[in-house]
Design goal:
Layout: E1 7-10, E2 13-16, H1 23-35, E3 39-44, E4 50-59, E5 72-75, E6 92-99, E7 102-114, E8 121-125, E9 131-134, E10 150-157, E11 161-172, E12 176-181, E13 197-204, E14 209-221, E15 231-237
Antiparallel strand pairs: 1-2, 3-4, 3-6, 4-5, 5-8, 6-7, 7-8, 7-9, 10-11, 10-13, 11-12, 12-15, 13-14, 14-15
């Protein structure tokens, strides 16, 4: 036994820090995502690309029916459209979303297309559980952290080539940074995956540049109109940013 898991509350929805314990909790969470029109990110098993979508309907079946019916979700078709053609080849999906700045994920399976108006889209299985991928439990105060403006990331491309990206630092904490990926640099999403170790990362402040190493914790669709269509790469650094005295 691992004891009672910690919980996260968003509005009236409560999610376990490890899994959602009951069907009722899962329903409350899914209904919350639908009511708030929250964006989700979909990754197809065996494919590195990330696709955008939203959950538009939850079908819980007929509670009065004697036949056992599995609950299902209907999500919008994937964007970019190239992802929709891959679903029949690899139906296993990883669906990710943000809840109060916490990265959450559940597994699902593609079941077919929904052609019933107005819920036209993709039918996927209802989750058995929701995992909390990353919780920001550390102090987010930036008083002692250098004001990094940009990050320069050098990544391998092919057997011998490398490619360099200069990206905006959108948030920072003692333990990591979030860097913004706009449509201009969207090809970086094909090169970076959760769990990747980053050995060539430079953080640029107004007075200095520091070289750091870290691990990709999440690649998440940005919420909000200011950077619509962009992603945030969350990086956990091997060394606390407070150690760099640049003032």
């Amino acid at each position: 036994m691992h004891g009672e898991p910690a919980r996260i509350t968003a509005g009236e929805t409560t999610v376990s820090s490890y899994i959602a314990e009951t069907k009722q909790n899962l329903r409350e969470l899914i209904d919350f995502l639908i009511s708030r029109n929250r964006k989700i990110t979909v990754q197809i098993e065996g494919n590195r690309a990330l696709y955008n979508s939203k959950i538009v309907r939850a079908d819980y079946g007929d509670p009065l029916s004697k036949m056992s019916e599995e609950s299902k979700l209907i999500i919008e078709k994937l964007d970019p459209d190239t992802g929709n053609a891959l679903l029949k080849l690899s139906p296993n999906l990883f669906i990710q979303f943000l809840l109060e700045e916490i990265s959450c994920q559940f597994d699902a399976k593609y079941l077919g297309e929904s052609t019933e108006y107005p819920h036209i889209g993709l039918i996927v299985s209802f989750p058995n559980s929701v995992r909390i991928k990353e919780r920001r439990s550390y102090d987010r105060s930036t008083e002692k952290i250098p004001d990094f403006l940009e990050a320069v990331l050098i990544l391998p491309k092919g057997a011998e080539e490398t490619v360099s990206y200069k990206l905006k630092v959108i948030n920072r904490s003692a333990n990591g940074v979030g860097i913004l990926v706009t449509s201009k640099d969207s090809d970086i999403l094909e090169l970076v995956n959760e769990g990747d170790e980053l050995k060539d990362l430079e953080l640029c402040a107004t007075t200095a540049i520091v070289k750091v190493t870290g691990t990709v914790r999440h690649v998440t669709k940005f919420e909000g109109p200011k950077h619509e269509g962009s992603y945030v790469i969350g990086i956990k650094l091997d060394e606390a940013l407070e150690e760099f005295d640049l003032f």
